[in-house]
């Protein structure tokens, strides 16, 4: 059924980079045998899923939507993929994205952009645009995305689906092609909150293969979906509903807050005073980490190698010049500059200090509130091509998701209505490792 649907709409949506119908059918047959033999079934038994193309899949091409890796097939599965296979999913294919997860509209895919299923002239968001569009268009039952500064939540918001960024450390990053290692997290994109809890349950947990994996207990997320939010204290940051946020987006989120109020929750305006510095510090930190992480793409170890180089250095130069797209190059240059001697203190170190202030803002609010709620993004999905020429405008779309990433806390984007004819996402932010409360609130609202 998934492949029939893909056959109907994929030509328009373009959510996938690689489809593996043969592999999927084989996996399905194996599950069928399991059913017949009466073997125990995994938590996600038989669910057809798509995987973002920066997550390593053994024997299945993994490109990060980059020309550099256009012919790259990994020899091992990411931990999340192993866990999903153990939970008995069927992998449909690999999902389109912004190159190396750098972007917020999917227009940085070096293959072709994804389109928003609600309006094909609009972007699906990014960088996990394929992950969100595939779920919205019915081309997968659920998908995995990755979120460094909003890349699960913002596309979920633009495409009217549920996207969860877990606490940093909750889900193993082993096998996720690193963009900014101190921020990257893998998470589920689903049609509803219950599915999100199921997938999170399947992929969470300590992994010795990821040195930043957190050795904390994984609760039963499903049992937290009680529908009860009586007495819940919600903080609404004034910075998240002020200037720069589309008034109709704000209105939609405010009515959602009234729904939660009707269910017995209370809300008050709070402040996250360092919000205005988040985008600047994120783009320094993320680019610095990216410049280091992407040094491994040198034409020797992975992917494309340039033809006829004059010498070794020329081979590096040519391979990188030909293999990377312009946004990736921009970030490598910015990051290299910020880390270079003489500038490190002024940029990288300063940005790290700002990151701490931003985290402290969240800690302060969480002393008195259970969750923080606001819009996921300041606008709804914009028209394809309308922002590509201005990276700075594009970066500002992440203003409401980036602070959460810098603080390392979990957040979900859940559809809460429409503005300008397009879906709006409400962002519910929780304390570190308290995905259970985030899911409970989202589920009660939904
Ligand atoms: N849009 C942001 C960026 O371009 C976030 C990307 C992400 O979370 N991977 O960096």
UniProtKB/TrEMBL annotation:
Keywords: ATP-binding, Ligase, Nucleotide-binding, Protein biosynthesis. Residues 1-439 form the Amidase domain. It holds the Pfam family Amidase. It catalyses: L-glutamyl-tRNA(Gln) + L-glutamine + ATP + H2O = L-glutaminyl-tRNA(Gln) + L-glutamate + ADP + phosphate + H(+). Its EC number is 6.3.5.7. It is an enzyme of class 6 (ligase). The active site is at residues 52, 127, 151. Belongs to the amidase family. GatA subfamily. Heterotrimer of A, B and C subunits. PANTHER family: GLUTAMYL-TRNA(GLN) AMIDOTRANSFERASE SUBUNIT A (PTHR11895:SF151), TRANSAMIDASE (PTHR11895). HAMAP family: GatA. Allows the formation of correctly charged Gln-tRNA(Gln) through the transamidation of misacylated Glu-tRNA(Gln) in organisms which lack glutaminyl-tRNA synthetase. The reaction takes place in the presence of glutamine and ATP through an activated gamma-phospho-Glu-tRNA(Gln). This is Glutamyl-tRNA(Gln) amidotransferase subunit A. It comes from Paenibacillus provencensis. The gene is gatA.
């Amino acid at each position: 059924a998934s492949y029939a649907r893909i056959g109907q709409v994929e030509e328009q949506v373009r959510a996938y980079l690689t489809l593996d119908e043969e592999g999927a059918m084989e996996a399905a047959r194996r599950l069928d045998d399991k059913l017949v033999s009466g073997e125990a079934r995994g938590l996600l038994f038989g669910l057809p899923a798509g995987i973002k193309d920066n997550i390593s899949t053994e024997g299945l091409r993994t490109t990060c939507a980059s020309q550099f890796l256009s012919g790259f097939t990994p020899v091992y599965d990411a931990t999340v993929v192993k866990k999903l296979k153990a939970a008995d999913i069927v992998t449909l294919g690999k999902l389109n994205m912004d190159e190396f997860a750098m972007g917020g509209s999917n227009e940085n895919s070096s293959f072709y952009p994804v389109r928003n299923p609600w309006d094909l002239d609009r972007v699906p968001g990014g960088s996990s645009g394929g992950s969100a569009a595939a779920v919205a268009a019915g081309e997968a039952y659920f998908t995995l995305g990755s979120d460094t500064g909003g890349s699960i939540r913002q596309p979920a918001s633009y495409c009217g689906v549920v996207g969860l960024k877990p606490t940093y450390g909750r889900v193993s990053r082993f096998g996720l092609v690193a963009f900014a290692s101190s921020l990257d997290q893998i998470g589920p994109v689903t049609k509803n909150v219950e599915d999100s809890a199921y997938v999170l349950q399947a992929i969470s947990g300590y992994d010795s293969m990821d040195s930043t994996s957190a050795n904390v207990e994984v609760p039963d997320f499903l049992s937290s979906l009680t529908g009860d939010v009586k007495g819940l204290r919600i903080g609404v940051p004034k910075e998240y509903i002020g200037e720069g946020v589309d008034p109709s987006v704000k209105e939609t989120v405010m009515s959602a807050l009234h729904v939660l109020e009707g269910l017995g929750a209370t809300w008050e305006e709070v402040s996250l005073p360092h919000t205005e510095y988040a985008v600047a510090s994120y783009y320094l930190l993320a680019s610095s980490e990216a410049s280091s992480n992407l040094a491994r793409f040198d034409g020797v170890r992975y992917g494309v190698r340039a033809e006829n180089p004059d010498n070794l250095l020329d081979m590096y130069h040519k391979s990188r010049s030909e293999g990377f797209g312009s946004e990736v190059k921009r970030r490598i240059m910015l990051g290299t500059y910020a880390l270079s001697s003489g500038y490190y203190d002024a940029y990288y170190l300063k940005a790290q200090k700002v990151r701490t202030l931003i985290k402290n803002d969240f800690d302060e609010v969480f002393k008195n509130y259970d969750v923080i709620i606001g819009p996921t993004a300041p606008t709804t999905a914009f028209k394809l091509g309308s922002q590509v020429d201005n990276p700075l405008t594009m970066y500002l779309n992440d203003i409401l998701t980036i602070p959460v990433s810098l603080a390392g806390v979990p957040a979900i984007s859940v559809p809460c209505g429409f503005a300008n004819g397009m879906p709006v996402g409400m962002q519910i932010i929780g304390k570190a490792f308290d995905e259970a409360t985030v899911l409970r609130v989202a589920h009660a609202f939904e």
